[in-house]
């Protein structure tokens, strides 16, 4: 299955994505809103059912993926 990042459009067929992982947006509505605002996604926009974000937009800290505002 081809997975592609909603933000930067890279997909898992791209050799540059070899070290990346793809993540769903959190189901929790409060976290969901934080993520999409940090990612610069329009809140009014209808997102595809499976919206994936690649790990380029995160950093790892104590095994949790933390979204960074500085990624953009
Ligand atoms: Zn990405």
Automatic annotation (TrEMBL):
GO molecular function: DNA binding; zinc ion binding
Key word DNA-binding present: yes
This protein's name: THAP-type domain-containing protein
Domain spans labelled THAP-type: 1-72
Native organism: Acanthoscelides obtectus (Bean weevil)
One Pfam assignment: THAP
UniProt key word Zinc-finger: yes
Keywords tagged on the record: DNA-binding, Metal-binding, Zinc, Zinc-finger
Coiled-coil intervals: none
SUPFAM superfamilies assigned: Glucocorticoid receptor-like (DNA-binding domain)
PROSITE patterns: ZF_THAP
Taxonomic lineage: Eukaryota, Metazoa, Ecdysozoa, Arthropoda, Hexapoda
InterPro entries: THAP_Znf, THAP_Znf_sf
């Amino acid at each position: 299955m081809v997975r592609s990042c909603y933000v930067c459009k890279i997909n898992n067929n791209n050799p540059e994505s070899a070290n990346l992982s793809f993540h769903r947006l959190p189901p929790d509505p409060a976290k969901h809103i934080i993520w999409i605002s940090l990612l610069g996604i329009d809140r009014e926009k209808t997102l595809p059912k499976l919206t994936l974000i690649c790990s380029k937009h995160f950093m790892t800290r104590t095994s949790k993926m933390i979204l960074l505002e500085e990624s953009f």
